[in-house]
Amino acid sequence: MDRKFVRTPELAKLTSTSKRYWEKLRLAGGGPVYIRFGGIVAYDLNDVLAWLEERKRTSTTDDRTA
């Protein structure tokens, strides 16, 4: 299994979101799992992709819980 880890700035760029979005998810919970070592936060890209896949919707009325 290939594992690639990405840090918050890279993840924000990959998903066209802000670093602050991912920081808020970490604080509030509900985001993908992450790893902290020292002062560095990193995400396993496979975990992020699985988390994003779970959030796919076909319409605004799709009521699946995230």
Key terms for this structure?
66 residues, 3 strands, 3-stranded antiparallel beta sheet, single chain, alpha+beta
Describe the model.
This protein has 66 residues and is α+β, with helices and mostly antiparallel strands. The chain has one domain. 42% of the residues lie in helices and 17% in strands. It is built from three helices and three strands; from the N terminus they run E-H-H-E-E-H. The protein has helices spanning 8-15, 19-28, 45-54, and strands spanning 5-7, 35-37, 40-44. Strands 1-3-2 form a three-stranded antiparallel sheet. A hairpin with a 2-residue loop joins strand 2 and strand 3. Helix 1 crosses helix 2 (19-28). The protein is globular and about 40 Å long. The model has no long low-confidence stretch (mean pLDDT 92).
Structural category: alpha+beta
Q: Spans with pLDDT under 50 lasting ≥5 residues?
A: none
* Helix count, DSSP H or I runs of 4 or more residues: 3
How many discrete domains? 1
**What Rg is obtained from the alpha carbons, in whole angstroms?**
13 Å
- Quick one: overall form? globular
- Could you tell me the number of beta strands? 3
| Termini gap | 26 Å
The ordered string of helix (H) and strand (E) elements is EHHEEH
Across the major sheet, the strand order is 1-3-2
Percentage beta strand: 15-25%
Average pLDDT reading: 92
* Helix percentage range: 40-55%
The largest pleated sheet is described as: 3 strands, antiparallel
